[in-house]
């Protein structure tokens, strides 16, 4: 919404007779100030006044150049998305050979370079990507564009046993999320090890027949530059949990509380936690405001209750993942586990995103930490039982698998490459079987 009386600038280039060079500089200054504010506060906590103040201009001046905060974000997303599109188009010929692997490794390195350059916006991209955000069409356009380019290359490379479009949307998802983790979490391994492990996994996924001798890489740097990460799953002490209002509820009271919790999960999934409110939850639940406040003080307390349940469910899933080691048929057991996780993700996937992207409260943060640790430990246990090419980090593999299960069921929703049901389970299972657990070719 534009401030009354503020005139819209007709154009912004240095040669514009209306704005000229000075106006173009002011506009660029506003974009840079917005980027700085998003880096410090995040998109949801940044308001127009923050951007104007950081740029040293008035609110009215800002509105001469941009209609809203969302318009600023759109322009920044267009810039970083287009930069990545140029990289995606440059993936070289892929094959089950040393040259094919070198092309893949170089391309993934270029992707990481662009992600690093535009890290603030890519991180905010992830944080605002919910089905009902006004920016979803823009995000969907880029995701579909990346997938189309990669699928074309996969088809040209005659990859066998995989649907080109399904594996491409999975790869776009995992590569993006893997880079997000690299920036947001101290994974315990260097960026070079993360990149090498990702490249070897993708090569094995696409071309399991690649001789492991062709996957050899030079020595990795001993350490990364000073960390730019802020830990998402920081080690925090378990906060005190006061006696909950839900304890001891039975009958209709219990059902009402459960109805609100289910509605909360649905609203958080479609709108994101930051953009949701109690009225939306009540509309989905079909209950009164009085009923809501009978069980929850506010939206956060509902999230805390939902998060506690999610922590328990994730712990159970982590424990069952390690059972794959003793299963008579690991392939069947892995598919059953993936099906169970997808079902869980459909019900509570929004909480996983909040854990990773919006640690809004110590209680939620602690639950997320425990859930992530349980999954990563289980993944390491199973992945560590399989042989792997030299240069592969088990820890990096575990993070890669976390990226797949945490993000992929959501990423493709609403795009023309959406995968659901049995095909979703199959592509996720194939990713693990071929990319992480496949034996050395004979």
Short description:
This protein has 17 helices and no strands. By secondary structure, the chain is mainly α. α4 (69-88) packs parallel to α7.
Which strand-content bin applies to the residues?
Answer: under 5%
| N→C terminal distance | 64 Å
What's the order of the H and E elements? HHHHHHHHHHHHHHHHH
Radius of gyration: 23 Å
What is the count of DSSP helices, taking H or I runs of 4+ residues?
Answer: 17
Report the top-level CATH class of the largest domain: Mainly Alpha
Low-pLDDT windows of residues:
1-18, 223-235
How many structural domains are formed by the residues? 3
Average pLDDT figure: 87
Task: Write out key terms for the chains shown.
442 residues, mainly alpha, Arc Repressor Mutant, subunit A, Tetracycline Repressor, domain 2, disordered N terminus
């Amino acid at each position: 919404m534009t401030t009354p009386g503020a005139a819209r600038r007709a154009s912004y280039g240095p040669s514009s007779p209306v704005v000229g060079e000075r106006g173009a500089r002011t506009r660029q200054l506003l974009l840079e100030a917005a980027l700085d504010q998003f880096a410090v506060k995040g998109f949801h906590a940044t308001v127009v006044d923050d951007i104007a103040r950081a740029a040293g201009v008035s609110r009215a001046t800002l509105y001469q150049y941009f209609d809203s905060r969302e318009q600023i974000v759109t322009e920044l997303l267009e810039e970083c998305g287009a930069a990545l599109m140029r990289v995606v188009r440059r993936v070289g010929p892929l094959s089950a050979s040393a040259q094919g692997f070198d092309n893949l490794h170089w391309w993934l390195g270029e992707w990481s370079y662009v992600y690093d350059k535009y890290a603030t916006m890519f991180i905010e991209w992830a944080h605002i990507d919910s089905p009902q955000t006004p920016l979803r069409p823009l995000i969907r356009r880029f995701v579909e564009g990346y997938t189309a380019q990669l699928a074309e290359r996969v088809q040209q490379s005659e990859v066998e046993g995989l649907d080109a479009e399904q594996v491409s949307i999975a790869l776009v998802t995992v590569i993006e999320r893997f880079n997000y983790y690299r920036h947001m979490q101290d994974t315990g391994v260097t960026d070079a090890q993360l990149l090498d492990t990702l490249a070897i996994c993708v090569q094995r996924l696409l071309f399991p027949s690649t001789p492991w001798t062709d996957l050899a890489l030079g020595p990795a740097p001993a350490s990364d530059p000073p960390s730019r990460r802020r830990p998402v799953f920081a080690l925090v002490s378990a906060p005190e949990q006061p006696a909950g209002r839900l304890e001891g509820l039975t009958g209709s009271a219990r059902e009402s509380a459960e109805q609100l919790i289910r509605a909360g999960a649905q609203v958080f999934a479609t709108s994101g936690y930051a953009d949701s409110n109690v009225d939306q939850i009540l509309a989905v639940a079909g209950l009164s405001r009085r009923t809501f406040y009978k069980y929850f003080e506010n939206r956060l307390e509902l999230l805390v209750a939902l998060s506690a349940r999610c922590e328990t469910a994730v712990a159970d899933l982590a424990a069952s993942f390690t059972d794959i080691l003793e299963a008579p048929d690991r392939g069947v057991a892995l598919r059953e586990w993936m099906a169970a996780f997808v079902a869980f993700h459909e019900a509570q996937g929004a909480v996983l995103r909040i854990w990773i992207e919006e640690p809004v409260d110590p209680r939620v943060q602690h639950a997320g930490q425990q859930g992530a640790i349980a999954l990563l430990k289980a993944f390491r246990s199973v992945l560590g039982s399989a042989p792997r090419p030299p240069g592969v980090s088990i820890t990096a593999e575990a993070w890669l698998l976390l990226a797949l299960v945490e993000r992929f069921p959501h990423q493709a929703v609403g795009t023309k490459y959406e995968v659901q049901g049995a095909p979703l389970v199959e592509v996720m299972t194939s990713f693990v079987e071929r990319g992480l657990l496949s034996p050395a070719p004979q």
